[in-house]
Amino acid sequence: MPATRVSDDDSVDPFLRKTAAWSWRLLVVGGAIVALLWLVSRLEVIVVPVALATMLAALLLPAVDWLDRRGAPRGGAVALILLGGFAIFGGILTFVVSQFVSGLPGLVEQVTYSIDGLRRWLVDGPAHLSREQIDNAGDTAIKALRDNQEQLTTGALSTAATLTELVTGALLVLFTLIFLLHGGRNIYSFVTKIVPSHARERVRDAGRAGFGSLIGYVRATALVALVDAVGIGTGLAIMGIPLALPLASLVFLGAFIPLVGAVVTGFLAVVVALLAKGVVYAAITLGLIIAVQQLEAHILQPLVMGRAVSIHPLAIVLAISAGAVLAGIVGALLSVPLVAFLNSAIRVLVADDPAEEAAELEENDDGIVFNAEPDVVPPKRDNS
């Protein structure tokens, strides 16, 4: 009886065969992700403004839809919301800058007084340093500044180039935002035609669910940031801390970077309070910031976020860390909204009943339906 021939595959342990099969597939997926990240980094000047415009569209779209449903022309509603937003932002920015200019001399005077007090303490206190040692330390700092003047000049030129990129990016954000608010749904419907017909509606439902969660995230984050800024700014103003309003504005902007932004801007407020008013006021400022953040963490976040955009804290920390490593501050800013979008989009994409999962997400997000646009006929399900 002839011996049964054993193939090479049969001679390998089944567990090892499965591991090898998974390994090369994961390598292919990993390579595709690396290629995508490389492409995004090369097109950063385009990708970042489009991403920021998408976030702004998520914030302003409900207001545009509200005007649209009440009979206003779509273009007029977009123009009104944008002009109103520019007017509010410009007014706040002008007020903050004027407050900063008027409050800066007082802060400089108080900081100078604090430095003089520190110098006296170093001479007369336990350190018993001589004035000659302190003066030598100051001279060393000035010499280091002069020695690095060329690098500072180069940095200034780099800053000028960065300013040009910022202006270009701002214009791209504006144009992208206008088109997204006016006809973003039609753009999305057109783009998704590249998807095979049998999966097209599932992909469209996933994108709508993800954008609905993005709307909820941006709106909730703006509300939380406003409460943080008002609470901390009011406390700083009552204590007479210089630059209370500019510091409150920084707290508002920092709140859009979860966990990290509030800590950094709050620490800056504590430093200003320490330099201007001393240790007692710095401790009170620290207590105020902790109290406001506890209010945010235990009341505001659970109340306004909802299940549709609820993300585990570990996922937030990992997303912010990865975003900061890959793209700095911009990456930290965009990472959590991206996770919020993908969280809902993937849930709908892999669900047994995408329509039911999408309806559940819309219900959890205060009834926001991304697909509802009165002046645009919803695209029909096509199999072409």
Question: Can you describe this structure?
Answer:
This protein has 384 residues and is mostly helical. The protein has a domain at 44-194. Helices cover 82% and strands 0% of the residues. The chain is built from 11 helices and no strands. It has helices at 14-42, 44-69, 74-124, 131-147, 149-191, 197-239, 244-254, 260-277, 279-305, 313-350, 354-364. α2 (44-69) packs across α3, α6 (197-239) runs antiparallel to α7 (244-254) and α6 (197-239) packs antiparallel against α10. The longest helix is centred in the N-terminal third of the chain and has 51 residues, at 74-124. The termini are far apart. The model is unreliable at 366-384 (pLDDT under 50).
What keyword list fits this structure?
384 residues, mainly alpha, globular, disordered C terminus
Low-confidence parts, pLDDT < 50 over ≥5 residues?
Answer: 366-384
Strand content: under 5%
User: How far do the termini sit from each other?
Assistant: 59 Å
Percentage of residues assigned to helices: over 70%
Produce a short descriptive summary.
The protein has about 375 residues and is mainly alpha-helical.
Which SSEs are present, and which pair or pack?
Blueprint: H1 14-42, H2 44-69, H3 74-124, H4 131-147, H5 149-191, H6 197-239, H7 244-254, H8 260-277, H9 279-305, H10 313-350, H11 354-364
Helix pairs in contact: 2-3, 2-5, 2-6, 3-8, 6-7, 6-9, 6-10, 6-11, 7-8, 8-9, 10-11
Organism: Mycolicibacterium aromaticivorans JS19b1 = JCM 16368
Membrane topology: Multi-pass membrane protein
Family: Belongs to the autoinducer-2 exporter (AI-2E) (TC 2.A.86) family.
